[in-house]
Amino acid sequence: MQADLRRDSLIATAPPAERWLLIESYSAWPRQALTSLGAELGEAVSRTCRHLGIRPVLVRRYGRVDRSRGRRWGMVDCGPGRELARWGQLPTDEHLLDVLAGNDPGTVTNEPVYLVCTHGRHDACCAVRGRPVAAVLAAAYPEQTWECSHIGGDRFAANVVVLPHGLFYGHVPPARAVELARQYDEGAVVPDLLRGSGAFVPPVQAAQHFARAAGHSPAVGNLLPRSVQELSANRWRILLASTNGPITVEVSAHLDTVDARLTCAGSSPAQVRRFELDSLTSA
Length: 283
Prior knowledge:
This protein is an alpha+beta fold.
């Protein structure tokens, strides 16, 4: 994959995703996932999710599916201090509107959810690189692992999202897939594969990365933002709360032009955003 050869930075590339709607699907996924619900219902679900700030994705189990269990839906909140998932049965696709309206509260669980993007019709690399990772994770965590539709960052395949903290990982090789889950079970992130948390804006993701690189704890709950100050159009000052005391991090964003397609369906040349550390001070 060209992103590997270019050594594209993973830093702060997690797209905003503070809430998720997981929709179990037995059918083949089209390029635009929600069109599998039908044009009218798919648009209604998409419109409602946009209004509520929810990221909808299709999910399925890896390998052969036991359809006698029925399909499920999941609603996940990744907001700091609110991290949890709710699951319920999905008798019909139309029931999704009841879920979004709050008419079906589902059952709350603190169990992790591991999503592996395998959406080959969106980008072939996601299937080629994602499915081996899904196989390894599903073997170790069969009840918590799901293949999922497009989540963004195809050039970083294999992409894994760890919920409910919304941790995006990229360039995940099968040999390290279980490591991500085990570290999460122990309450830590794996910094060298971490794209960031979708619960935070990219400048905060960048600040967290640079703080960890400076030796601060990789604990999942560490380095929460206390304030974000925009100093200029492409520069920010972020105050992070750390187990070692507050940290002030200043970061800047820069656009680089790449003479290549970033994804299978992309165009060339393309631009990528890159964050740099300007300063880091501890109290």
